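Sample intake sheet
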Amino acid sequence: MNAVTKSGTNDLHGDLFENFRNPIFNALDPVSAGNALALGLTPTQSVHQQNQFGGSAGGRLIKDKIFYFVTYDGYRKSTPIAFTTNNPVAPLACPSEITAAQCTAAKNFVNSQQGSIPRLLTQDIALGKIDYQVTQSNHVNATFNWRNWQEPISTSFASAANSGLTSNQNNFFQDRFVILSWDKVISTDKVNELRYQYSQDHSFQSWPASSQIPNISLSNIFTYGQVNSIPNFTNEDRHQFTDTFSFVKGRHSFKAGLDLNFVHVSLHSATPSSGQYQYTGAVAITNCTANLVPNCTLPLASNPWAATNCPTSTTGAIFCDWLLDLYNKDIGDGRFGKHWSSYGQAHDLQAPGNSNGQLVPAFVDIFETYEHGVYFQDSWKMRSNLTVNLGLRYDIQVLPDIPFPNTTTAIDAAYTTKVNVDYGGIQPRLGLAWNFSKNNVLRVGFGSFFAKTNGSEVSATRRLAFRGQTLNCSPTAGGICAPLVFPDLLYNQAAWTVGVPFTIPGAAPTDQPLGATVLNPAGNPCLGNTACAISALSPDLVNPRAIEAEAVFERQLPGNMSLSASYILTRGEHLPNFWDANLAAPTVNKVYDVVNASGVTQSTSTVPFFTNRIDMTTGSILAAFSVVNSWYHGMVLTLHKPMSHGVELLANYTLSKSTDGGQSTGNVGGEGNDSGIGALNPYNLKLEQGRSSLDARNRFTASVVWAPPYGKNLSNRYERGAFSGWNLSSTVTATNGTPYSAAVQGSSVLCLGDVAQPCTGSVSGIDGGMTGALLSTSRGPMGGRVAFLARDSFDLPSYADIDMRVTKRFAIHERYNFEIRAEAFNLFNNTFIQAVNTSAFSPVQPGGTSATCPSASHTNTCMVPVSSFQTPTTTSNYLLGSRQLQFGFRFYF
């Protein structure tokens, strides 16, 4: 990517500016406002105050020889984050083993994690440039760019559903770039440019001081405690050398170049490093006694009292399961401290855990990558009305080896020993521009483009193949997981001392919430332990690439307007997806009853069910595969009217279709609740073919500028000053919403048969989801998408946005100008729903007199509709949101 930066001149020129927004001019975000009212809070704007300010200056140090240019841009934005819940805890019941004080304290704690929390985003950008005209044929310049970004409580732009104040992170970004270049005019037809760049791209994430507790997640209620991948950092330092030689020969303009990149990466990230307990489904209590009030547990049909007096409520059961564990209550059900659904944690063998909270450099990875390219292109003026561009580029990315391959088993070694180097980065390019008649031009282009493999994928394998392993425990797991009870940790590898979420004033120590004990089991926890998971790379992984073609017809219209019609085709190849490489082909099917809210079967869904591993002596292997392909077809109509009679117009309409075979990045949870990774059946990837998560079929954009010219002709200078210099502009965007998939609520591993966990009477799925094949990025089971509905079969609502700006410029002096402006973003305060709750169905095992899956009418697992499916969760981000007004000025000199 090339960027053009201003340079200084012999005269001093510059500007100063300020843009300001204030909540008194802004509208409320509808989702945040509704959630605030539901919690008894006063609604507040998503942006409270925003200031953007700065300036630039350029001039000479030595006339006609050395010039300078400097600029600064400051940004301050007060934008509160609203933590919300799908299920307020006020109406939920507590088991009678929990005292009234304990129940009230727990609910108060949940509520304390909700609501609007203030935060201030801060950014500072500065650039400095020196140009030196050494001789008439030699020019050198040096550019330095500096950026700091600080974002506290970096969870979401305006709202975070089912999260909590302590379950967040603080983000810091630092960018530093130094670019040196030397332009040499060798002769009238030969020029060479030599460029060197040193850059630092550093990011840091840290915990808030109040989060000294393990990460605990209650499905569709809230989350609290440490963000599992924090603290982390990613530091990328780059040395880049580029040389471009250009020369002209007859009708040909040639250009040849060499690009050498040496990248040093230092990375620290592991998920989940601090440990995470998940409560995603109601636990089957075998002893639902009279001490338990309704909505607390999911009873078994074998207990007549429970069948009558303990009606099912998944949300209520999750809440009570957490309370029983939180306060260390034994109700005689054989699950003391184990009413959770799953526990996950990563452990770095090279950085043994400790119980003293000492800083341990766990999950750190330092490596080098090399990204080199060469290219040659020719712009050939075949005829006065025909130009042909030919080009060829070759890129190669050399990735580091894996220092600690996992050779425990043959399949572990196959996926963790080799990092494939893709030598196929040959990329031909072709372009043609033909002015075949006076007012008509045809442009055609074709090219192949080579992308890079994400360094984080390689680093995850380097860190989490052997030395950094992930354990996923179920409450009934044996081995290293057996002694684990809530809220204990297997390991502690971070700089923190484990605390308690809250305390109850005046309560006895035995009535307080439990604190965690760090178990620190000795030895390698993953030897012979199938509960362990690793990250890996397919041994034949190659770089993604795209083949693009475009044809554009442009016609000059009367009035100096132009109309163009374009067809764009993009073929993506070798795009990534991730799944468990240790899944044996399924040999059995599982049948689900798809029911309505009353438990009446509407249809059945039969899916292949994964119950075996290729190697049953080792755990899951979350591997990256480059097997996904995509298609994009687009038609673009563009009308352009350049400035004349005070009016300029640019309008575009795009009709497009985008499909793929399950690319890993999904929309609003995409193919599930974890970034849309995985496949329901890795042995049949055709099932994943569907719409792309970015498929917006219709999109219209337009911009219009009106600069009334009549004020310039007024003879009275005061009237001329009042009526000239005005400028009114507006942009319009109207688009279809992007698609998303219906997801399975929860991440519990399901059973093949008709009994609830633990699978005492039937076989358990290997991983999560309806097929037992889905893993999240943290290598734990996830719900994934609903199998009986097509991928990305739902759409976010369409939206339209109108922005407007009014400016007035005053000429103070021949050299000085002053401009004031007023801007409106989302002028008509339209609602932009950009994310919804994608949890559509919840799996429920048949049992007792359950209203949603009674055993009297069901022997199959029921897929019960989730009432909050498609409920809006996000209506604001950094680009779109409720109406905001901005006022500003700019002074030119």
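Comment: The radius of gyration is 31 Å. The helical segments are 30-38, 100-112, 304-309, 314-326, 410-416, 455-464, 717-723.
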